[in-house]
Amino acid sequence: MQRPTPPQARRRTRALTGAALSLCLLAGVGHAFAATPDPQTQKGQVDQDLKDARGDLRETSKELVAAYDKLAATRKKLPGARSAAAAAERAETTAKGEYDDAVAAYDLAKANEDKAEKQLKTTSSKITTSRRAVAGFAGQLYQQQGMGTLAVAVGSETPAAFIDRMIMAQSAGDTQTSALEELSTSRANLVSTGDRLEALREKTSTAKATKQTKLAEATRASTKADTKKAALESLESDQKSQSAKLSREKQKDKKRVASLQAQSDKLTKILQERARKARVREAAIKKAREAQERREADARARAARSTPSRNPSTASVSPPDPNPPAPSSSGVLQAPSNAPVSSEFGLRFHPIYRTWRLHAGRDYAGNCGSPVYAADSGTIISALPPGSTGGYGNQIVIDQGVKRGSSLATTYNHLQSFAVRSGRVSRGQVIGYVGTTGNSTGCHLHFETRENGTPVDPRGWL
């Protein structure tokens, strides 16, 4: 059983992707900010890994169930295969015994036939010898006394000799006749026996050939059954190994899911605590700002009461403030500049690169040297010169903390110079001055907002 695009390969791909993403806080820009990974970004990656790990666990579980089903099906076939192999082996043994019996019967029949043939030759030889002896005896009698028993007797000198010669001649003839008849009978019996034995040998020869054919068939059947049994046993072994391997993979996936879930839970607690601290900090800042505003209002009121009234026609006009106050805003962020907006977030035809591309921020057409304000209280992540920011020129990046459940950062680009370069800044604090450093066609501030490292339209935060 096999698992397609193995889970190990998918895990390696995802691990490499996660590692690449974790190297950069802000995706899709020419500069990676030099800062420790944000917990919110880490949690997003961990949650994605957790989702992938759960998918791997589901896939492994499905493959394990399929492997167990195949193993059960194979084991269900094994008893029949083993029984068939045993039956085929018994049939082969029986056929071998029958073949051996047929061979023995054939050999016995042949031996008996050979024995009968030898006896037939011996009997035939005796008959021939007896016939020659009778013929010689008869010729002798004829030459001596003429033919017949009477001629033998007539030549006797006395009656007693006559009688003796008659009896002897008659006995000799009877004996010879009896011997010839017996030999002829024996020869006929031997011929008949030889015929029967030859027929038996032919029969046993046919039986031997038949049993040999059956033995060959039984051997082939036994070999086939053994091969099938061995194949099923080998398949069972392979499937057991695959099931064990998948079971181990499932345990690894479960441990990985549990580990990633623990990491996600830990990061959730960190983010919750971070959000709580941010809320406390924001409340304290808001309270301090309100107190400051009340003090400033009281001071203005006292100044107004202590200053004599002037004739409007004779009042002098104050020159414009070179550092006007930061723009006010009721949004999560305030505008970073008092200058008018010259370009919004979205696709535009780039004036330098002459191509359509995403304008990832908002441009404020301020004069060079005009102040740039922090959009909200936060910590400066970096304040880098043009050589290390690509086309952004002098750049400040501020971590604004967790806002609306997202990790928010703001960037201030093409600055002429820095007012601050590190530490914590307050909402509305001057952090730098409008310039035209980097890839810029004129004095302006390029302002970006990034949620979890991804640029978004600043208008959603202002």
Automatic annotation (TrEMBL):
Region feature (Disordered): 202-261, 286-340
Keywords tagged on the record: Hydrolase, Metal-binding, Metalloprotease, Protease, Signal, Zinc
Cofactor list: Zn(2+)
Superkingdom of origin: Bacteria
Matches recorded under Pfam families: Peptidase_M23
Biased composition (Low complexity): 206-219
Start-end of Basic and acidic residues biased regions: 286-301
Residue ranges with Polar residues bias: 306-315, 331-340
GO biological process: proteolysis
GO molecular function terms noted in the UniProt entry: metal ion binding; metalloendopeptidase activity
Stretches assigned to the M23ase beta-sheet core domain: 358-458
Signal peptide: 1-34
Name this polypeptide is given: M23ase beta-sheet core domain-containing protein
